[in-house]
Amino acid sequence: MKAIFNRLLVALFSVFLFSSCLYHNLEELENSSDKDMTNVNYSYRFLYNDTIKKGTVNEEIQKDRVCEVIFNKSLEKTEQGGLTHFKATLTHNVNCVQKGGPSGSVTKQMLYDMFTKKITQDGLSSLWVYVSISDAATVTPLDGAPKLGTPGDFSANRTYRVTAADGSYSDYVLETIKGF
Predict the structure, then answer these.
(1) Which residues pair with 129 in a beta bridge?
(2) Is 52 helix (H, G, I), strand (E, B) or coil?
(3) CA–CA separation, 92 vs 72, rounded Å?
(4) Cα–Cα distance between 115 and 112 in angstroms, integer?
(5) Which of 41, 147, 150, 173 is the most buried (most CB within 10 A)?
(6) Secondary structure of 65-108 as H, E, C letters
(7) Ramachandran region of residue 161, left (φ > 0), alpha (ψ -120 to 50) or beta?
């Protein structure tokens, strides 16, 4: 009987604990006409191997760790031919290297050196690009543009459509300039 009571108590507590966490009286967005793109970010990712606790009995080799390099950018927003253009000039330095996880024998400088070799070879052909858009809007690549959030070729201008919740849309052009 006590076990049944405890289960009932846990179930009742769960109902209150896991009920909606949304605030009341939020702005309704289902018919929103907002379709703005407000920012563009660029990064480059590659895999590397690292040795943790090198030279000790607890030495561990970690394979295929991900290094992400987040580019510095100069972003210029202009209107051309009825479209909004985001012209991003990308640069980088050692501080752009994001190194997470346990510290091993691979330093930030070593990762930066690996990156400079890889980016010299790849150029703008394997970048990860993310954009900021209005709430309740969606973004779709046009004319063969790569899907955002996956590695893609940005060596040419790329066009994306931001569609508002009400179905209206605006097209945006991403122009990526290699400043390195």
Answers:
(1) 42
(2) strand
(3) 6
(4) 5
(5) 173
(6) EEEEEECEEEEEEEEECCEEEEEEEEECCHHHEECCCCCCCCCH
(7) beta
